[in-house]
Amino acid sequence: MTLYFAAVSNSKAKDAAVRAGVRNYLLSYAGSASSWKLNEDVLFDPSCRLIVDSGAFSEWRGRQLLIRKGKDPGPPIDVEAYAQFCLLLQGKALCECSFVNLDVIPGEWQVRPTYEQREAAYKRGWENYEYLVAKGVKNVVPVFHQHEMLSELPRFCEAANYVGISPANDVSTNEKDSWLSKVMGVLGPRIWRGLRTHAFGVNTTSLLQSCPFYSADSTTWLNGAKYFTYCQLLRETPTFLQIQKPNLAEYKQYTAKDIVVFSGSLTYRYMKGCQAFLEFERFLTGLWAQRGLVWDTR
Asked: Is residue 68 part of a domain?
């Protein structure tokens, strides 16, 4: 399984990612110009892989928040402009690139979409997918969202060999798990025959062990830096352990030098997050290999 590092957006995080040997990145079309400049080296490194996210979810969520505050959300993301951006990257990139479709998310945050909303979102999203492909964008990843009609999922698999799966972020864990079980019921045989799937917003370690995704992305590796904790992967569970600074000395595997550096170095905590995330990637790859599913990972 390939885990993509998302939100590599400042120099300390980037430095840690480079030093740790990170090769798989997710960058957003909606991201800042400085973030793209910071990660420009990824484009010209043939050993790297890049997923370009359209920013559809961030735009969908952000527009609703602005509207509720009585502010003008501005124009939505333009598919023509996104296509031109993708083609520009595609023309100069030496790394392997995949481009997430400018999908349309049905309904509003924490409001279950109606049948009409689901149908309209699916139709517009599929039109965007066909537009990008027609313009010459390669490796476009269509995204299937929770609340969309499960009967439409086979169409995604017939159109592309890399399909995004996006559970809703505003439903309970049980609802998300139940939906993913149904999705895997449809995709399972296809995955074992070579279909690749990418998990959006699936950060639960247990789900990544039970669902045979080809890849996933996450910002979990940033937690140690964001919350001033020490991020470590417990292999027995496995789960990510966020050790609070005051309790760090209780863990015998850490030296006094670790504790001193941890207390004062943001870069060190970024590095530990990178190492834990890469270790989890190796664990998942080995786990699925034992079950007979082997991917082309780096």
From this structure: yes
